[in-house]
Design a protein that fits this description.
2-enoyl-CoA Hydratase, Chain A, domain 1, Pdz3 Domain, Muramoyl-pentapeptide Carboxypeptidase, domain 1, alpha+beta, single chain, 14 helices, 6-stranded antiparallel β-sheet, 6-stranded mixed β-sheet, flat
Length: about 500
């Protein structure tokens, strides 16, 4: 297998697909990684490590050995020796209470190891563990997960009717992944929504392209726009190429969009930051457990001849936050949108000799000014929310279930938000199915070739979701992008 750069970044676009490329943190081979210290311990790290005497180490190992022998020989049922060893390692990792530090046994590691040169199939979302629940960090733009209405912080409770409580992240992901065209049913618990709901997601191929660009013209001025969907092997080179192309069009401002970008390879952030941030400040700092910091600088001396605005939201995580923080603090540029996700740690893999891996949090990363954004996120300088319908929940109806006049629940409220966002006034948005809501629904059904019943059936719910996604993906309705361009032109 080609292993130029091996990764498990927990981006379910890949992990949940037939190929395991991403997993929320970064795996690198033995090649250099500019923004991350070496896997080998430095003198300062060795000095900071707990100093146990050979006697203490021997006593601790003897205790573990005794526990192993007692359980192996005396437990009421016969146990496989390998299961006890695996359990002991897993127990040590669980003691860390760190959702980003994970142990993978040999079989699991093999299933998740995949070259960045491969193609991918899956649902297209990054997941992580939060409060012992598999949680969506961010769906990829245009992915099956986004089309199905999944949002950051959605918790996955069941997969195809099977409760996944108690499973670790990788075990859960293996149940979600599958072939292109197959459908997985996820039970979702969403913050602010009382009852869990089901979402059917049709797995598909997730494109490997991560950089998209275009040029807008407003008030007689040209504005460049570059969207980065994740930081993969060729993201930095693609960014430089597309930036040069739009710069040749004489742009007078640049919008960099990392909304919904769950992160990726840190060396790719270095390539991009080095194009945009001058050498006066570091674009990122890496802090070791002893508090020692390594600062990483660009080599450029002059800023771009135009202003830059970064777009972020609560699906912007990890490497996206490094870039946003660098542009905000080292570049002095505006950041527009929502507060980002808040992942401020760096993980690296340690092979255990038999094909298994221990992916361990080894460093914190800090912004140019030394801020640790973990769990807090990068704050925008220009806070802007999208319209309410951008955050609407998928409508999940049981078989033969309908929503009708005089119903009063969260599902009706969500229908009302959707209708209003699509231009059909429901009269209210409190969850009560009024006559005004019924009339608005009839108008929507008539306009979309659906039987004009004034009731929400599965057919109507699916059409509402389809039309809403079209509205959400339309640049005309993107309030945050409009504000970013206006900020550039002020």
């Amino acid at each position: 297998m080609n292993r130029k750069i091996i990764t498990v970044l927990m981006l379910v676009s890949v992990l949940i697909g037939a190929a395991g490329m991403y997993a929320g943190i970064h795996w690198f081979d033995n090649g250099p990684v500019a923004a991350v210290p070496s896997n080998s311990l430095t003198d300062s790290e060795q000095a900071a490590a707990p100093q146990e005497s050979p006697k203490q180490i021997a006593e601790n190992m003897e205790k573990i050995k005794k526990a192993y022998e007692i359980i192996s020989s005396r437990y009421v049922e016969e146990m496989e020796p390998n299961e006890l060893i695996e359990g002991a390692i897993q127990g040590m990792v669980n003691t860390l209470e760190d959702p980003y530090s994970v142990y993978m046994d040999k079989d699991t590691a093999e299933q998740f190891t995949q070259s960045l040169e491969s193609s991918f199939e899956g649902i297209g979302a990054e997941v992580g563990m939060q409060n012992d629940k598999v949680t969506i960090v961010s769906p990829f733009r245009g992915s099956p997960a986004e089309k199905a209405g999944l949002q950051p912080n959605d918790q996955i409770l069941k997969v195809d009717e099977e409760d996944i409580a108690g499973l670790d992240l990788y075990q859960a992901v293996l149940k979600i992944r599958g072939e292109k065209g197959s459908v997985v049913k996820l039970q979702i618990q969403r913050p602010g929504v009382q009852e869990p709901f089901n979402v059917d997601v049709t797995r598909d191929t997730i494109p490997i392209e991560t950089v998209y660009s275009e040029t807008y013209e407003q008030e007689g001025k040209k504005v460049g726009y570059i969207q980065i969907t994740s930081f993969s092997q060729n993201t930095g080179a693609d960014f430089k190429e597309q930036l040069a192309a739009i710069e040749s069009d004489n742009i007078e401002g640049l919008v960099i969009d990392v909304r919904g970008n769950p992160g990726g390879l840190l060396d790719q952030v270095q390539i991009i930051a080095s194009e945009l941030v001058t050498q006066e400040k570091p674009y990122v700092q890496i802090e070791q457990r002893n508090g020692e910091k390594q600062r990483f600088f660009s080599s450029i001396t002059e800023k771009k001849p135009y202003e830059i605005v970064t777009l972020i939201d609560n699906g912007s995580a990890s490497a996206s936050e490094i870039l946003a923080g660098a542009l905000k603090e080292a570049g002095g540029y505006e950041v527009v949108g929502d507060t980002s996700f808040g992942k401020g740690t760096v993980q690296q893999p340690l092979e255990l000799g038999d094909g298994s891996n221990l992916k361990l949090t080894m460093y914190k990363w800090l912004t140019p000014d030394g801020n640790w954004i973990h769990k807090d996120g990068v704050e925008p300088t220009v806070p802007v929310k999208q319209p309410d319908y951008f955050y609407a929940n998928p409508i999940s109806l049981d078989e033969n279930e309908e929503l009708t006049f005089d119903d009063n629940n969260e599902k009706v409220k969500n229908v009302q938000v959707m209708l209003k966002g699509l231009g059909f006034d429901p009269g209210r948005e409190d969850g009560y199915f009024s006559k005004e809501t019924e009339n608005a629904l009839k108008s929507f059904q008539s306009e979309n070739g659906i039987p004009n019943t004034g009731k929400v059936t599965n057919q109507t719910a699916e059409q509402l979701q389809t039309k809403l996604l079209e509205a959400v993906r339309s640049k005309e309705n993107d309030v945050q992008l409009k504000e970013a361009i206006n900020t550039l032109l002020k």
